[in-house]
Amino acid sequence: METASRLPFGEILTARLGPPAYPRVLESSPRSQVWRIELAGRPAVLKHLVAGPGADERYAREVAALRIGARASGTPVVPALLGTDPAERVLVIEDLDDRRPPADWIVDYAAALARLHSTARPGDAGVLPRWQGPTGADVTSFLTLAETLGVVAPSGVRDELHALVERLGRTEGTALLHGDPCPGNDLHTPDGVRFIDFEQASLGSGLMELAYLRIGFPTCWCVTRASGPLLERAEAAYRTAWHTETGTALPDTGLADACAGWLIRGDALVQRAQRGTTDHLARLPDEDWTWGTTTARRRLVHRLGVVADMTADHSDLRHLGALAAALRRAALDRWPAVRPVPKRRP
Question: How far apart are CA 172 and CA 114, in angstroms?
């Protein structure tokens, strides 16, 4: 066990919070070190973002998001931020009692996600970066995949996809987006769901993360799919919570765009450390790989089905809907061992 004297807990934090005791290492990504500690007899969590590319930015995002998320009225949706040491990229948050989520966990999750999104204000512009959508390169990669699998793209689909990229690029919204609202980054406490790990937080439209429930948690190791009735309950819970917190209704349009945007992004098939390194859609015809609860091909087939269903009668994406349906059939013919993604989270 690491001794308290070796923790990245310097004079700034000690002066504010007192000396730490009984440190215990917790599981974390390679980008951070995390401990459970005690402060004046009460448990807390110490997080240190290790040096590396983007570490300062990730630290700034996390601290800013925790401060914005703390505005939630009523039940909190983020842990309390107890102290920070920016020079060392260290923060201390309250320790939360996480319990096993119920079978219908995505309902409470969706309501809490809406409440998290609602905490940002127009004045927060510049505190966090804007959400970044797919690019023209993603369009090219997606259409090349279709061609490789022997699927002829409808004549209008390229223009549809470039228009989609443009729409997503100018999508309005000031929601606080978590950036990686995965199962595991949601803690189901006795008082409600709270979110942790905001290193990828940004500002944008909440629809981009509401889409996670349908499209299969595209930035996450843990992919799940919900039955139709459960999905309807979860999306209704999100919309209700959003209206309660903001006094405004969530737009009826835009969710199909969000799901389609996640479909065409090859980087949504790999974990964060591998994003931006190569064309991952181009890898699929020759290889499959497991990330978390499922494989890349299973992720793709699930997303194709979702987008095909959502866009069949969509005026702006009907060609994409036809392509997604045809590409899904071709993928299943080529990879008959592919099965649906899991219904249950681990």
Answer: 16
Report the chain's C-alpha Rg in angstroms.
Answer: 21
CA 51 to chain centre: 23
* C-alpha separations of 137 from 93, 127, 140, 189, 296 in Å: 39, 28, 5, 41, 19
Number of continuous H segments (helices) and E segments (strands) in the chain: 12, 11
| CA–CA gap between residue 197 and residue 182 (Å, rounded) | 10
**Which strands form 81-85's sheet, in the order they lie side by side?**
20-26, 32-39, 42-49, 90-94, 81-85
pLDDT at 4: 58
Question: Residue 172 — pLDDT band, cuts 50, 70, 90?
Answer: confident
Angle at 177 between CA 174 and CA 183, to 5 degrees: 160
Q: What percent helix, strand, coil does the chain show, rounded to 5?
A: 45, 15, 40
- Six token digits for residue 34: 């995390």
* Cα distances (Å, whole numbers) of residue 108 to 50, 137, 194: 33, 36, 10
Burial of 87 (0-12, 13-18, 19+ CB in 10 A): exposed
pLDDT, one tens digit per residue, over 28-58 is 888 899 999 999 999 999 999 999 899 999 9
* pTM for the whole structure: 0.95
Give bridge partners of residue 271 from the DSSP assignment.
none
Binning pLDDT at 50, 70 and 90, where does residue 252 land?
confident
